[in-house]
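Co-fold these.
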Amino acid sequence: MAHNTQTLPDEPVIRQAAAGAPPAEESPLSQLPAWKEYQLILFRIAFIFFIALSVPNSIEWYQQLVQLNWAQLNYRDLYDIARFGSGINFLGSTIFGSSLAGYANWITTALIATVGGLIWTAVVKARKLPRKEYYTAWYWLRVIVRYRAGIGIIGFGFTKLLPVQMPYPSLGILNTNFGDLTAQKIYWLSIGIVPWYQVFAGVVEVTAGTLLFFRKTTTLGSILLLGALGDIVYVNFAYDGGVHVYSSYFVLLSALLLVNDVPKIYRLLVQERFTVPVNYYPSFSERWLRYTRIGLKSATIFLFLGVLFYLQLVNFLYDPYKQPAVAGVQQLRGNYQVTEFRLNDQVIPYSPIDTVRWQEATFENWSTFTYRVNKPQPLDLSNGGGDPQRDVNRTFEITGLAGGQRAFHYYADEVNKVLYLEDKYKAIPDRRNRTAGVGGDGGAVVDEAAEKAARQQAARAQQDWIPAEARKNIGDESLKIAPIALSARRARDYASAPAYEKRNRFTVKYSTTDGAHVVLTGVDENKNNIYVVLDRVDKKYALSPSGLNAGNY
Amino acid sequence: MSNVTIGETPAWKDYEKIGFRVIFIYFLLQALPLDWKFYSYLFSGAAFPLHYEDIFNLANYTTRFGAGPATYTDWAILLAIAIAGAAIWTYADRQRSRINVAGSSLRTNEISNTNSPSRTNGITGSGSYDAAFYWLRVILRYRLALALLAYGFLKLFALQAPYPSLSSLNTPYGDFNRWKLFSLSLGIVPSYELFLGGVEIVLALLLLFRKTASIGAFIFLIFCGNIFVSNLAYDGGDQVYSLLLITYGLVILSFDFQRIVRLLILQQPTAAATFKPVFEGIKRNGRWILKTAFLLFFVVVYGVKTGVGAKHDPYQFPTTKGLPAISGLYNVATFILNGDTLAYSLTDSLRWRNVVFEEWNTISIRTNTPALIADNNQHLVRKDNAERLYEIEGTNGRHYYSYAADTAQHQLTLQNRHPQLAAETLSLHYSRPDSNRVILAGTTYSRDSIYVVLEKVDKKYLLEEVAKGRGRNRKLKL
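Predicted complex below.
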């Protein structure tokens, strides 16, 4: 019911231009208001700062871009293009030894940008060529920031829209007490249990990013981005989520895009005055310029909205990136109670305080076996995500939780009915997220030298823990997913797997008919003989099961 | 009141007027306290002296025709009443204008003046509902601000989602339903809850001032839109209420919506709002007095009461203290039922697995049978300890009993907290040989005699161990 009036008695000059005038787009630069001195200086600083922040700063990013196999893409290839660290880091990422919660890099970049901006100002003054405005440069800065923010958030958004970023809890996690989880894990799980809400969040993020690609909707997209990511920054601080710097990054970019709109809204709504927005868009008069613009824009949209959606869909259906992708043995699925447990032929009865006897066990839908034992375990408290392709490194089942839960990745020789199990916990985890760089999420702190030494030591043992005949029966794990989901990245990750990793391992024979009653006999990681009788139980959880299942098992 | 309309104001078209009449009546019915149940609660003894819980419940009251919370059916009934009312209004208006035209041919239509301030009289004079819309907006702004302040202070003091009880920390993740997990996941981060409460309070303050109301309403729509979708996703009980508040926000924003779209999306020169209320004399002072009174009561008084309540009377948990220094997790080392000693078991349906004593007078027992779920998902703010059922809602992992302790005779009388299982009582004699053991002996509700020795477990919760240190980048063994 708002009625816009056309003219106001106290602003006669504007009346002529406003009534029925075309939008400000066509005004030549000289007719637009000049910039004040402080605005010129601020712009120079901001120009350097935001260009530095919009460009990848790690050599690995450029390497992976060059090495990309465009014929066999994985969603992570495009995601890694969009998700990179930035900022000036050749002076290091700490200030006086402290990383300032990860923001030190921004401060350094800001300081360098300020110095650069002041030098630029001095040069302009010295050359005696005064500038009145930077409309064109401001337009191009906004374009760079818009597209950087847009593709970045769309990369993020698709992992929610096809809900894989926060997986539905595994059986082992469902059986873990609430107090035995870290805050970060609890937050991730709280979204994982409602896949349709995750989809909604993904729609919001992808929409915000898409709106940034178009001039008229940039403001709306920036507001959505600011709101959504502002909340995520706070969430990351509160839950110690670890991604606060990368989230703040989007808040910073969207704040830059809104810097012109805030005074406009203030003037219109709070001061209640006639407002004339000033928006400058350079006209692309030559044909080749227009075609280049449309071509680049279409290519970006095609790649990041079209191709990435397809790749993420394939990922969701066949290879959800945080969850092991390979199906487990068909009969061995579900929650199992440990009916009988013999160690070195001695029966150990159940006791909640016994430190050896397994209390409960699960066989997941995928290639994981877990058991719980009342013994303190070394813990992996990292986020458990990132780009690992091998099932054994997809650690969301063990990251951020305690309570004596142990998870093992297994290779199944279904001909001889033998399971070869390896501990998913690794004291020195494999390096992940190499291209994320400074300001991205570089994964858990890793001591590469120690890892190499451990591998060399294991290599001296020179024995494959799985006999060759069993290897033939097991097959090549990298090919055990739907063929459409195979990618060069997966093959490369499997091929570069260290031959003689140091992990806890044990081997058991399993005997069962339909999986309801399973007997395991073998040798555990401490060279003890174990004999375990497992009976499947149908646990009725209060939590509703997922309505949107990732992966194909 | 008199008001000034600057410049031309095109007359409201007929369909706009009819639409406005429906909306006007409907939202007045929704936002104003017209329900007799509201007044019976307010004036009954239950509400006095006004505790923060009472202010909260009164502030969030919505008109309903049934016994339970408001539903979409109630909305439909109110909408039907509004349509009927609008029809009558339209008819009466047509009658009046017919009489006017017939009666005086000399009266000019007051809205045809150009470029000069025109005076409109009364609420519906001269075919313009600008004044009526202004007052509707005022009512909705204050009503919405009230809801935001009521919830905002509960979150500010981390009352709405409390830190999980010890029993919850010792319940497996899958033994909670979605809504309970949502609440627990928020409860572990009081700083985030404080932030959300702060946002709500700031939005309320923006809504209280005419010039910032649309900005507040816009941000609120994003904020509450998320709350509404969360309620759908997690099976929460606040779906209807959050959608109602969203409709209030939409009406508030609608006044400036076209202007904002024109300025920010179409990027064209935009004129400001043309309707400005002007208050003179006593009405001016009255307005400031009322506004100040509102702020004083619902921000200062309510805020202080809630802050004090957070310390002494958090509404989600009972306040009756339990036995001194008994809270913790206990392993059931010995369990003798009717003379038979039952060994540790994960399959026996009777043997207890572990026991948690809370700081307050609740004891929870984990057995091998799932408990009956108390599946209330409404956000209930209660003063009576027996009605504070948050700790048992949404979970089937443990059996909850409240206990009355006779410290002279060392007697505990346990009663199942679930409203449908209130008949289950146990009568136990307790002894505490040392600070780590509790021995319970007595009879259960099925007339079995039990003898239980509880041994305290020195339990370290990962949730808390990590929070103590410098974060997660270190080796931890638990």
